Amino acid sequence: MALLDRLKGDEEPEIAVHQFYAHLVGLADGQLTRSELETLFNIGTTGVDKTQLDVMINGYTAAADKGRYLTAVHAIFMLIEHDDFTLSNGQITSWLSAAEAAY
Questions:
Q1: What is the Cα–Cα distance from 85 to 83, expressed in whole angstroms?
Q2: Cα 34 to Cα 90: distance, rounded to the nearest angstrom
Q3: pLDDT: is 10 or 83 the higher one?
Q4: How far apart are the two ends of the chain, measured CA to CA in Å?
Q5: Are 77 and 18 in contact (CB under 8 A)?
Q6: How far is CA 12 from CA 3, 72, 75, 76, 78, in A?
Q7: Which pLDDT value is given to residue 90?
Q8: Is residue 18 predicted with pLDDT exceeding 90?
Q9: For residue 53, what are the CA distances in angstroms to 23, 37, 46, 56?
Q10: DSSP of 33-83, one letter per residue?
Q11: Which domain holds residue 42?
Q12: What pTM does this model have?
């Protein structure tokens, strides 16, 4: 199971991207913990799930412009909601890395 694949609807159980995004913002604002987020969405604490969540959380933590980073995450999640979404997990990770560096 991979977090990004669940967000893209390619694996079950699917995760609603905007619900997940709202919780990521809550995490960034200190309203919940990583452990609570993992429990809410049944995200694995090892393997690919952990690695993909690390990319999102660590990217925010290290971002030069945290608002810009969250905007990029939101843009990716909006694109995921459309049936013609074609970004690979690698492309998503690259986009997040670019957002972390504030372009």
A1: 6
A2: 23
A3: 10
A4: 31
A5: yes
A6: 10, 25, 23, 20, 19
A7: 94
A8: yes
A9: 12, 10, 10, 5
A10: -HHHHHHHTT--SSHHHHHHHHHHHHHHHH-SSHHHHHHHHHHHHHHHTST
A11: 3-100
A12: 0.90
Conformational region of residue 9, where left means phi above 0, alpha means psi within -120 to 50, and beta covers everything else:
left
Within the chain, what is the greatest distance between any pair of CA atoms? 34
Phi-psi region of 102 (alpha: psi -120 to 50; beta: other; left: phi over 0): left
Note the pLDDT tens digit of each residue in 19-35. Answer: 999 999 999 999 999 99
**Token pair 């995004």: residue:** 21
CB 100 within 8 A of CB 69: yes
Q: Which residue has the tokens 């694996």?
A: 11
Residue ranges with strand state E in the chain:
none
Q: How many CA atoms lie within 13 A of 62 on its CB side?
A: 12
Quote the number of domains for the chain.
1
52: tokens are 């993909």
Identity of the amino acid at 103? Y
Residue 58 has pLDDT above 70, yes or no: yes
